Amino acid sequence: MPEDSRQSGMSGTQQAAMTEELSANFTKCLQEEAEKIQGEFEDSTPMKAQARALIWLDTLAKLHESGLEEAINTNDAKQAAAWTRDLGILEVVLGLLRNIQPMDLNMNESPPPQDVDIQT
């Protein structure tokens, strides 16, 4: 996360421009990676894609935990709040992704069993 503008000596406009540039670079990186994946992983399945997503999101969550720890150690409440907010969102997404029943559309087996209604 970028430093507070008072600490870095950057104006709000400069920070916005830097954020916009970082966002554009990240978007470009995502597009390049998507193109590589399409070419390199022709045998990819939804299950494999889910596993890759979990690995990347878990890594991102660990980076956020490190950022949060650093913000706490430097007594930067504003950055700590931002890292905590983002980490919370990542944890929700990870929880959802972990609970999705993986599908392998390339399986030639019989369809999965139907959900069972449990009477209580």
Order of helices and strands: HHHH
Q: Indicate the overall shape.
A: flat
Helix percentage range: over 70%
- How much is the radius of gyration in Å? 20 Å
Strand proportion: under 5%
Topology of this structure?
Layout: H1 5-8, H2 12-40, H3 46-73, H4 77-99
Helix pairs in contact: 3-4
Structure description:
The chain is built from 4 helices and no strands. By secondary structure, the chain is mainly alpha-helical. Helix 3 packs antiparallel against helix 4 (77-99). The longest helix is centred in the N-terminal third of the chain and has 29 residues, at 12-40. The chain starts with a helix and ends in a 21-residue tail after the last helix. Residues 1-6 have low confidence and may be disordered.
Brief overview:
With 120 residues, the chain is an all-alpha fold.
Can you tag this structure with a few keywords?
about 120 residues, flat, about 70% helix, mainly alpha
